[in-house]
């Protein structure tokens, strides 16, 4: 009945909160979401495919895209650029497909700046104790490093006010299910659909 | 972790769209929603219970409540008043329970006036043809009556702009599931929960 555009969903939250695990679990289920493919200047590795794992660009090409504001966000990491190409996102949305992006808090805020019509979901730790445990369990990090990451997490949690939704990651299944509900309910938002619905019905009335 | 207040959900839509069927199907499932109990001046009938089927009041009592603005909406029907008592709704929400109200469009607009913090869901017919069929199938209504009700439905659909969500009632199961998603995602809205979440975590930090 309705020719609807897709929605960009951005999942973010402090480091150690479990964004990657939740995202993997979400994509393990049947989902219509398209995962946002990043762009990078690092070399393609064996087994990787252009347009599947990454879009591979030269440094020059990447910097051109930055200048032309064709990246929703980007960062430099160990000498290489990584970013989210606006064109891929917009084309996917135009085809009526939702795009799902999982990203650090700083990146999410860049996306929000460049694409405010996105839906921003903040993954929240069940408790500070739990966040600490997850950071520690990640690897052999020193006490000093853990402390620093917790302070960073506190700052990131302050950024929560820029988000539309907050989902507590106390249980992965519950968190994933809440994200699915957010996706479904966003498609029912009156300001998104009312105009088209009315139009479809008015065609019937006439 | 969080001591959260309940949310008032209002399901409405044009007559003939299937509000009652969707509501029944929603409550047939396991749900934490509390159905809003109406107040009436009509006599209690055999088998009915005060506070379960209705809150029964005298005409004088009801009119007092109208004057004191203790009804979220009310209407007169065949010589009796029917309405939604504000106190019952607010007490239930204060206990952390969501309240669910299924009501005609005019009533929903009254509720919105008196309780704008509610979440308003508009049930939308899949097509005009389908709405017509449903109105006809309801009983032995004359062609003139069906025509009038369709004109009324068109006016009611114009009211859609006052609502937060629009759910197409093409399939009952899908519509119910969308309403459940809306209920769940509304509880994840940042403006509802961020303050409490931050507070809980700050207690951990200190």
Can you describe this structure?
The structure is a homodimer of 206-residue chains. Chain A is 47% helix and 19% strand. With 206 residues, chain A is of the alpha/beta class. The first copy, chain A, is globular, with a radius of gyration of 19 Å. Chain A binds chain B through residues 1, 121-122, 124-129, 154, 157-158, 160-161, 163-168, 170, 177-178, 180-182, 184-186, 188-190, 193-194, 197-198, 200-201, 204-205, and chain B through 1, 121-122, 124-129, 154, 157-158, 160-161, 163-168, 170, 177-178, 180-182, 184-186, 188-190, 193-194, 197-198, 200-201, 204-205.
Short synopsis of the structure:
Two copies of one chain form a homodimer. With about 210 residues, the first copy, chain A, is an alpha/beta fold. Helix content of chain A is about 45%, strand content about 20%.
Key attributes of the depicted protein:
homodimer; 206 residues; alpha/beta; Rossmann fold; Guanylate Kinase phosphate binding domain; 4-stranded mixed beta sheet; 47% helix; globular
**Helix fraction bin of chain A:** 40-55%
In total, the number of domains of chain A comes to 2
Structural class of chain A, by secondary structure, is alpha/beta
Largest interface between protein chains, with number of residues from each side: A-B, 40 and 40 residues
SSE order and pairing:
The structure is a homodimer of 206-residue chains.
Chain A: E1 8-12, H1 19-28, E2 34-35, E3 38-40, E4 54-56, H2 59-67, E5 71-77, E6 80-85, H3 86-94, E7 99-102, H4 105-114, E8 119-124, H5 128-138, H6 143-158, E9 165-168, H7 172-186, H8 190-205
Parallel strand pairs in A: 1-7, 1-8, 2-7, 3-4, 8-9
Antiparallel strand pairs in A: 3-6, 5-6
Helix pairs in contact in A: 1-7
GO molecular function (chains A, B): ATP binding; GMP kinase activity
Enzyme class (chains A, B): transferase
Catalytic activity (chains A, B): GMP + ATP = GDP + ADP
């Amino acid at each position: 009945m309705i020719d609807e555009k897709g929605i960009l969903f951005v999942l973010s939250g402090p480091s150690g909160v479990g964004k990657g695990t939740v995202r993997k679990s979400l994509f393990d289920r049947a989902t219509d979401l398209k995962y946002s493919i990043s762009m990078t200047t690092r070399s393609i590795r064996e087994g990787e495919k252009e347009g599947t794992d990454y879009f591979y660009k030269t440094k020059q090409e990447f910097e051109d895209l930055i200048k032309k504001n064709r990246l929703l966000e980007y960062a430099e990491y160990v000498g290489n650029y990584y970013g989210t190409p606006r064109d891929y996102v917009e084309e996917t949305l135009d085809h009526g497909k939702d795009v799902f992006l999982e990203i650090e808090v700083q990146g999410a805020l860049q996306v929000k700046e460049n694409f405010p019509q996105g839906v921003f979901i903040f993954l929240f730790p069940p408790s500070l104790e739990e966040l600490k445990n997850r950071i520690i369990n990640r690897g052999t990090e020193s006490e000093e490093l853990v402390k620093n990451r917790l302070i960073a997490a506190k700052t990131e949690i302050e950024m929560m006010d820029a988000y539309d939704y907050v989902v507590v990651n106390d249980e992965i299944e519950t968190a994933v299910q809440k994200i699915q509900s957010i996706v479904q309910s966003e498609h029912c938002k009156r300001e998104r659909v009312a105009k088209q619905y009315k139009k479809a019905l008015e065609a019937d009335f006439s």
